[in-house]
UniProtKB/TrEMBL annotation:
It comes from the Bacteria. Residues 24-278 form the EAL domain. It is found in: Cell membrane. This is cyclic-guanylate-specific phosphodiesterase.
């Protein structure tokens, strides 16, 4: 009896495994064709300066418009794209399209708007990354202060010395650098003094309950004052209500991003949002 049950479990397990492998292969195959099939989309989420209420930047967030799966979120395909090395062409596609969009919006009046782009570890390791970025900026005649790159702590700390050199080169070109999801990695704080950074993005996990949890409030307040002493500005991620905004504002937080202001929007909707406060 036990044997029969065991065998059944085993059969169930292999069936589940096969389904997983198939699904994974399905995503992989689709991803390899996603650019050529024109299935990638960028959404844009406004970043607001707390003290002026102005939209000073937008973050480009990728989605995959899949013919059968619908709109696929990045957490579902970016990790796979990294494993199969598709993140290099996809990352280049994001840079080109986000900066093309920025150039268009600047021509339409958003003269100082900044575009934030998420960069993966593999992109940072690509030997032509600096030249690639210079080329895209030149193609759209965008200068200093147009582009911000977001990297996570773990990516920043992978090769701290090489990164310091590379990021210094990028910063020399007027590209701004932000640490994404700050406070969620396992790294020490030492990279904050090693790397030439402009901004730190306080992770949503500290913001989502900040108005109720004194520990989240303490971590947020300490992060903001430390950042300011290091000469960095702070963006709070995932601000969803007024209480959170008021609290972050009282702590001196510089910028906010989150559903309270806007979800990530299509390009047209995002421009309408930006236009409201030229
Ligand atoms: P991230 O860079 O930390 O982006 C913030 C995520 O939080 C986005 O999820 C955004 O939609 C979501 N978010 C913003 N405000 C709120 C809020 O108020 N409440 C809640 N619950 N969520 C909020 P999304 O768009 O699904 O992106 C997930 C992650 O995928 C990003 O996290 C980033 O790590 C990655 N990603 C997105 N686009 C790209 C890309 O072009 N290249 C790379 N390498 N990674 C990307
Ligand atoms: Mg980001
Ligand atoms: Mg983030
Ligand atoms: Mg995040």
């Amino acid at each position: 009896r036990a044997k029969a049950a065991g065998r059944n479990n085993y059969q169930f397990f292999t069936t589940a495994m096969n389904t997983l492998v198939t699904e994974r292969q399905y995503i992989e195959t689709g991803l390899r064709q996603a650019i050529a099939s024109n299935q990638l989309r960028l959404f844009y989420q406004p970043q607001i300066d707390i003290s002026t209420g102005q939209v000073v930047g937008v973050e480009a967030l990728i989605r995959w418009q899949h013919p059968e799966l619908g709109l696929v979120a990045p957490d579902r395909f970016i990790p796979i794209a990294e494993e199969i090395d598709m993140i290099i062409p996809i990352g280049q596609w994001v840079l080109e399209n986000a900066l093309a969009q920025l150039a268009q919006w600047r021509k339409k009046g958003a003269k100082t708007l900044r575009m934030a782009v998420n960069l993966s570890a593999h992109q940072l390791r690509k030997d032509t990354i600096v030249a690639d970025i210079i080329n895209v900026l030149a193609q759209y005649q965008l200068g200093k202060g147009a582009l911000e790159l977001e990297i996570t702590e773990s990516v920043a700390m992978q090769y701290p010395e090489q990164n310091a050199k590379l990021l210094a080169e990028l910063r020399q070109l007027g590209i701004e650098l932000a640490i994404d999801d700050f406070g969620t990695g396992y790294s020490s704080l030492s990279y904050l003094k090693l790397l030439p950074l402009d901004r730190l993005k306080l992770d949503r996990s500290f913001v989502k309950d900040i108005e109720n949890d004194p520990n989240d409030a303490a971590i947020s307040a300490a992060t903001i004052s430390m950042s300011h002493e290091l000469g960095l500005t702070v963006v709070a991620e995932g601000v969803e209500n007024e209480a959170q905004l008021v609290l972050l504002s009282s702590m001196g937080c510089d910028l906010v991003q989150g559903y309270y202001f806007s979800k990530p929007l299509s390009a047209d909707d995002c421009f309408r949002f930006i236009e409201r406060n030229f």
